[in-house]
């Protein structure tokens, strides 16, 4: 399963506030990601958020089309709420108020994947 990681440029010293924002995240009702026609385009399997100094990283484990995953995230109330709550702590503004702005920001913030290794990729023992 692939992973994607996006970065946020954060003002340092707000670990408690940021932990609270993500700790109160409203999860989506379904991990199913649909495309523009309503057909399944993937799933969001898990997310994790990491913080050090002035960098926050959100890691998403998913299946399917990453662009569809980003569009799906852009429409989720919990994601929109987090993006709004993060605004006072950002050193660089993020245009995430619309689906188009969110997906463009997602692409710009995406880290380049250089390796992904999972025990799930190992052959099943006989």
Structural overview:
The mean pLDDT is 92. It contains 4 helices and 4 strands. The chain has a single domain (3-112), classed as 2-Layer Sandwich (Alpha-Beta Plaits). By secondary structure, the chain is of the alpha+beta class. Helix 2 (66-74) crosses helix 4 (99-109).
Summarize the helices and strands and which ones pair or pack.
Blueprint: E1 3-9, H1 15-23, E2 32-34, E3 40-52, E4 55-64, H2 66-74, H3 77-86, H4 99-109
Helix pairs in contact: 2-4
Describe the biggest sheet?
4 strands, antiparallel
In the CATH scheme, the class would be: Alpha Beta
Task: Report, as a whole number of angstroms, the end-to-end distance.
Answer: 23 Å
CATH topology group:
Alpha-Beta Plaits
Mean of pLDDT: 92
- Calculate Rg over CA atoms: 15 Å
- CATH architecture descriptor: 2-Layer Sandwich
Number of domains: 1
Domain SchA/CurD-like: 1-118
InterPro entries: SchA_CurD-like
Protein name: SchA/CurD
Pfam families: SchA_CurD
Summarize the structure.
By secondary structure, the chain is an alpha+beta fold.
Keywords:
alpha+beta, 4 helices, SchA/CurD, globular, 4 strands, SchA_CurD-like, Alpha-Beta Plaits, 31% helix, 4-stranded antiparallel beta sheet, 126 residues
């Amino acid at each position: 399963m692939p992973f994607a990681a996006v970065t946020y440029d954060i003002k340092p010293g707000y670990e408690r506030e940021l932990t609270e924002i993500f700790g109160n995240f409203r999860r989506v009702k379904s991990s199913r990601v649909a495309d523009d026609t309503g057909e399944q385009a993937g799933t969001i399997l898990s997310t994790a958020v990491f913080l050090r100094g002035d960098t926050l990283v959100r890691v998403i484990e998913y299946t399917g089309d990453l662009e569809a995953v980003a569009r799906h995230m852009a429409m989720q109330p919990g994601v929109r709420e987090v993006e709004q709550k993060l605004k006072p702590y950002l050193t660089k503004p993020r245009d995430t108020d619309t689906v188009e702005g969110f997906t463009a920001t997602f692409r710009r913030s995406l880290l380049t994947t250089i390796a992904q290794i999972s025990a799930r990729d190992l052959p099943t023992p006989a």
